[in-house]
Specification:
The structure holds two protein chains of two kinds. By secondary structure, chain A is of the alpha+beta class. Chain A is built from three helices and nine strands. Chain B is of the alpha/beta class. In chain B, the strands form three sheets. In chain B, strands 1-7-6-5-4-2-3 form a seven-stranded mixed β-sheet, with helices on both faces. A three-stranded antiparallel β-sheet of chain B has the order 10-12-11, with helices on one face. The chains are: A alpha+beta, B alpha/beta.
Amino acid sequence: MEFPEDLKFTEEHEWVLVEHGMATVGITDFAQDALGDVVFVELPEVGTVLETGKSFGVVESVKAVSDVYAPVSGEVIEINEELPDTPELVNTSPYEDGWMLKIKLADNAELDDLMDADAYQAFVEEEG
Amino acid sequence: MTTLGTSGLILNEKLMFEHSDPGRKGYSLPALDVPEVAMPAELVRAEVTGFPELSEVDVVRHFTRLSTWNYGVDSGFYPLGSCTMKYNPKINESVARLPGLAGIHPATPEHLSQGALKLMYELQTSLAEISGFPAITLQPAAGAHGELAGMLMVRAWHEAQGNPRSKVLIPDTAHGTNPASATLCGYQVVPVTSDGVLSAQTVAAHMDDEVAALMVTNPNTLGLFESEIRAICDIVHAKGGLVYCDGANLNALMGIARPGDMGIDVMHFNLHKTFATPHGGGGPGSGPVGVTEALVPFLPVPVVTSSASGYRLQYDRPQSIGRMRSFFGNFGVMVRAYAYIRTMGAAGLKHASEMAVLNANYVRAKLEGTFHLPYQNRSLHEVVFSDRDLDGDCHTLDLAKRLIDYGYHPPTIYFPLVVKGAIMIEPTETESQETLDEFCEAMLAIAGEARDNPELLHAAPVRTRIRRLDETAAARKPRLKWEG
């Protein structure tokens, strides 16, 4: 199970990578492992304004359908166009090729509410 | 141990299209004794080709062979949690096939359909007595359709008070269709975390004057009774909200406790589950809804009423949410449910619930030393284990597939979502102790195989005509039509 040091994490198992005021978002290695084979991903349209903690999309696996929640608020400026046709990227490469969307950060202070890799790893071990 | 599952000769069967032979027919007509008239050319569709051409014996064998691949509650134990796959007594089928009931046209005038209307009226009365609600509509075609009807009435009631409100609270142990029904009625769903059983305190923390309703499943999807339901209803009512109960699990309460007495305002029934009519093949179902007096004006039309001059279909109800279904609902399912209620009687229905709870707890007692039981509270009609203690890197899916080799329909798996790797077993009241013992022995044998020979689980099922299917490929790259 991977917990990359440069990412921030939520209790709902999303990860965030912040670069130049932009947040790239996806679901964690733990989340994809718990879901099993992902068969469908639904993402919002570019231009959608997300609110922290609100559902922005859906991930469906052979076991279950789950909402995905916005870890930070802001406008969606790019989505991963590959995912609808190749949802397996969420399983094979959750932190890289399986990224879901890029958000223009509305409030940098929100990042302080997210967990770092160590805290998330501890959270997962307690939950698991 | 002698297991139910065994291997035998299974006949392959092609698609009808692949059997087709040009000119082959399943009928023979008498010689023509009138002049032949050609069809007008404009009525002949040139593009329709490829219909299978088969003899009668081809067709009979086709469907008979397909039927041997089936597994139903008439073949064996079917512990599919949440679905209440109880045995459906054949007398219900005989009654539903009576020509006067099976052949009645839905447009038959009222005065010529008094028997059918009386049956519907008496079914409403029986369901009202069982559930504790003063009024019932029989119209919805299935459980989720009943939810929609119920939540539309909730919305209509709030609108009549001047404000439809915006939110609906749904605990994590409710049925999966509840959020969809609330959303369809224009509400924002607020998920509420429970600790297996929903606490009144948690509900209080979420209640405000924007909450239109709480949707609760009781007993919930963990098979646990919502023991704080009375206090929860009071809290919701105090803030002007209503309480919706998903009645899909009524099989644990029937004849023992009445949701209407617990403070609940609206509840749907699943006649096809609790009241023993065949389901699992995609229906038809029936999802009547019971409501309190306050919601009676909003019931769907028509409402079946009784008066000195006979039974009537009443349409003149200005506050009604309207019609939910063409004609009057799935009448055939109502007939079966009526027959079930009348043949069981009040004492019989209560005994059915008691046996359903006893059977689930019997299975629990036999298996809880081996399988992890995430919630320790007393179970009602179903019990939810997890795959945590399964050895050999075996998971819930492997266990489910291996159970097929032993001759059982697998339990519900990976639901409810609050249990990781959930194995949800609902034996129902119609199973004997011998059947439950054999099933539990199979479960324990499989746990042993997971430890000693996990490959047996990973390869399962091995005794079936088709081995384990690639569910992932089927979902990612579905092939939805036959191409010759």
